[in-house]
Amino acid sequence: MNEFLPHISQLIQSTLKGFSFLLQELVLVLTFILVILADLISHAKRSAWAYRICIAGIFLSTGVGFIQNSDIARVTLFDNSLILDSTSIAFKYIFSAVTILFAIFIRFHKPLQNHRKGVGDLYMLLPAVLIGLNLMSMASSLLMIYLSVEMVSIASYLMVGYASADKRQTEAAMKYALFGSICSAVMLYGMSLLYGFTGTLNIIDPVFLNRLDLISDPAVALAIVLVLVGIGFKLSFVPLHFWSPDVYEGAPTPVTAFLSTAPKIAGFAILIRFLEPFLLPAQSYKLPDLFDFRAVLSVVAIVTMILGNFSAIWQNNVKRMLAYSSIGHTGFALMALIAFEGSGFSSLIIYFIIYAIMNMAAFMLVDKVADHTGSTDIRTYKGLGKVLKVEFVCFVIVLVALTGLPPTAGFIAKLFVFSSAFEYYAASDSIWALGLLITGAVATVISLFYYLKIPLYAYLKNSEAAVAVHVKRDFLTVVIVFLTFLLILYGLFPGLLS
Amino acid sequence: MSLLSLLIFLPLAAGLLILVLPYAWQQRYKYVALAAVGIQVIMSAFIYLNFDGNAFSGIDAKSKYQLVEQVSWINLQLGRLGSLQIDYFLGIDGLSMPFLVLSSVVMFIAVLSSWEIKTNLKGYFALLMLLNTAIMGVFCALDFFLFYIFYELMLLPLYFLIGMWGGARREYAAIKFFLYTLFGSVFMLLVIIGLYFSVQDPITGNHTFNMLHMMNPDNYIPGSIFSALAEQQIFGIPARLLGFIVLFIAFAIKVPIVPLHTWLPDAHVEAPTPVSIILAGILLKIGGYGILRICMSIFPDAAIDSAWWLGLIGVVSIIYGALNALAQNDLKRMIAYSSVSHMGFVLLGIASITAEGISGAMLQMISHGFLSTMLFFLVGVIYNRVHSRYIHDFRGLALIMPKYTTFIMIAFFASLGLPGFSAFIAEAFSLIGAFTSESVNGLLPRWMAICGSIGILLSAAYLLWTLQRMFFGKTRLMGGEDWKSKLTDVNGREIFVLTSLTVFALLLGILPSLAFDKMNASVLELIRLVNLK
């Protein structure tokens, strides 16, 4: 015990210093407590105060983050267990924006609002989950990775199960929690192996790689695969995607929108953090011959793109279709990740910004339509294009963006991913990169097929009976139109993104 | 704002105006559209008259383009990928200028024939104007990125125009069209990215999407994938050849060539008349234009290597399209297949890489633009009256619709290449080009030209046979007296359209120099560039 004494003051000091870089998260902690209190004290209709405090808190934390991060290039905090650099800062902005959209979405989602449990507890979860997401984007030690992933997971389990009314929703929630906990257990096992091999939890520590170099290849490969399983669950890439269509269909639409956006992007943030030491060219570490990250991830990406897109074709439920489409998008983003070398995350981050906008908008539209017709089956969209004019024009634009056609931002996202993959191909001459490019192109054509199902039913097919829908528009419609506008704006002037 | 930008974005403005006009005015939307397109016609006529064909030979030199407009558009720092620089770069030369005139005239006629559209007028005219913007943009863009954006922008409006206002099988036709084109263009995107990383702006040193820079071998980064010197291979195929093939397939789907043509009969038949007119009159030409402007100019070495195959595809399209046309019962389907056949001449002419051949191909595209517009308009006339297009539903129409029959005869004879009409000159030049190719550059064997001329014979067969079946003899109609009363002769609006198209076809047939003078220098410049390799 005594030998640690001289270090204690130093440790305390570095910990205290670290807090000054976590103002954003501290504000969120405060918001979390305030939201609980507000929900306990005030009995306003629809938990109005909880909503307001929640939104205000997230805005405030983003603002604080903006001031705090303005001149940070790269700092490591808490004895190297967190990294704050331009990548994590960018991710944090994306998470804040998605969470705000999520809060607004909950506010205008009738089934949740009318639920007998109320929505106060759901608002309470938002700052908490945002802290988890932010930590995910900064984590650089195995322990931090595990903690942050669990933090987001537990909040996600709660969200999915929160309003489960019928059997299917309960099943979805149960499936999600069970599958999730198994995956995180597997990940923990992998991490314990890595810790055993190296004696350090810190993956950016050179010791980590040096000691790993001494271990036999199969053992390292096994440990890494186990960790990837846990991360893969969050990303829902093949073969760890089983849960997502059921959960996405069963969960309330705002929750689905959130789950398919923020935790997924955070999963990529973790993956970047985890792979960075292995892939950075500056490191002397030679990748184990047995385990080629790029090859394995390329295969995963190719299979994910194919399976996600092909499965989506057969879906008639819009939410399920979007679930599969988001699996396809995961494969696409993996393509950008594989091509990454060094600090060039820009194309990946731009992809995620645009993906977040498209995905949130798509689910908001699904909800908006379901609000009018009570159904998420595409076949009930017949003739709706003539009634819900604004909504469906936006829907078409969002779907075009999801397909990745100009002049929408989806095209820019796709172009950047293709570009980085191509650059990687040109540099490495890797057959995998070529495979990825071709699969990506084919997947685009396939995706058009199912995305266009929505305008097909909404506009092209005539409904036998006149559609009797009383059109109601609220603030959510404004948000949708705004997001759609952003998609076109960024599509024409992508320079605004940087 | 230069003339070209105005030409491109005027219809977009008109489309937006239509969107905000109240529903009570929906009968006036068409006049807004007509006014916008009318101004476009005047502008393109002005451009035509002021275009100096000899000075502005274009192709690979910016200084030789007229009405050039180059503004920095996207400037984005992309980490390791370097800085992304994309220009809003427009300009016209002898290859693109004729298409501006053609597009605006065809668009004008398409709007005039939109009188038949009765439902959801707001959506219809807004989409039509969006399509118009995209088409004009494609012909003016000199930056590959910009070109691609306009190229893809055409798809969505067309999908809805076919899908919402089309015939019984419209859903199938619309998605088929979309999937076919997208399939070509997604892979085109990969080649564009490849070119982007292979080419350097000689001044700034950045990668560039500038097409003119892509045409100059000096701008290729040594060792890059599409560099001619590096001789890179993909799947054992030279990268440049593969790039050429991918781009060619993307454009060939639009042309269309056999065997990638199957979307065309479906799309043409199911589309409403104005959209058929635009499809046949303009869209097919974008394929031919793309092959000339992009495939040939950027990959001249690969173009020469594959000239024989291009010629063969052209000949197969001519014969196969004509034989198919011969077998059709549906008048619109017959004309659709005749388009496949006629566009085969374009490919044959281009493949010859001779001045005659390429000029012939250019003129064939323009001539076919006017003639197919006329043919589809004529089909629209009877379809609107009795909602049938089956050849065997009609007989002896000449007796009840004499004026209509006159126009149909003009259109048919012009299409089958009667001397005096534009198609004759165009097809003759294409064939001359293909015929002399063996002695000039040895690219195409003579039998291709000979087989091509059989296509003319076949087109005479199917057109004259149709003429005889539908128009001559005693009047016998499927719908009896009811149809007889409905089949009124052409009205003033229709006469105006048909007469003006006849004038164009005759004018180009008698004075082909009206077109040749403007594009000759560009064609020669293109051939120089290709032979430079």
Automatic annotation (TrEMBL), chain A:
NADH:quinone oxidoreductase/Mrp antiporter transmembrane domain span: 139-426
Key words of the record: Cell membrane, Membrane, NAD, Quinone, Translocase, Transmembrane, Transmembrane helix, Transport
EC number: 7.1.1.-
Ranges in a coiled coil: none
Location within or outside the cell: Cell membrane; Endomembrane system; Membrane
Topology with respect to the bilayer: Multi-pass membrane protein
Transmembrane spans: 20-42, 49-69, 89-108, 120-137, 143-164, 176-198, 218-243, 255-275, 295-314, 321-340, 346-366, 387-411, 431-452, 473-493
Assembly and oligomerization: NDH-1 is composed of 14 different subunits. Subunits NuoA, H, J, K, L, M, N constitute the membrane sector of the complex.
Family: Belongs to the complex I subunit 2 family.
Task performed by this protein: NDH-1 shuttles electrons from NADH, via FMN and iron-sulfur (Fe-S) centers, to quinones in the respiratory chain. The immediate electron acceptor for the enzyme in this species is believed to be a menaquinone. Couples the redox reaction to proton translocation (for every two electrons transferred, four hydrogen ions are translocated across the cytoplasmic membrane), and thus conserves the redox energy in a proton gradient.
NCBIfam families reported for this sequence: NDH_I_N
The protein's name: NADH-quinone oxidoreductase subunit N
Organism from which the protein derives: Paradesertivirga mongoliensis
Gene name tied to this protein: nuoN
Automatic annotation (TrEMBL), chain B:
Keyword Aminoacyl-tRNA synthetase among UniProt keywords: no
Membrane topology: Multi-pass membrane protein
Ranges of residues in domain NADH:quinone oxidoreductase/Mrp antiporter transmembrane: 141-442
Bilayer-spanning residue ranges: 6-24, 31-51, 88-112, 124-142, 148-165, 177-199, 241-264, 276-300, 306-327, 334-355, 361-383, 404-426, 446-467, 495-516
Location relative to the cell: Endomembrane system; Membrane
One Pfam assignment: Proton_antipo_M
Alphabetic keyword roster: Membrane, Transmembrane, Transmembrane helix
Keyword field contains Metal-binding: no
Major location category of this protein: membrane
InterPro entries associated with the record: NADH_Q_OxRdtase_chainM/4, NADH_UbQ_OxRdtase, ND/Mrp_TM
Family recorded in the similarity comment: Belongs to the complex I subunit 4 family.
Entry-linked PANTHER family: NADH-UBIQUINONE OXIDOREDUCTASE CHAIN 4
The name this protein goes by in its record: NuoM family protein
Protein species of origin: Paradesertivirga mongoliensis
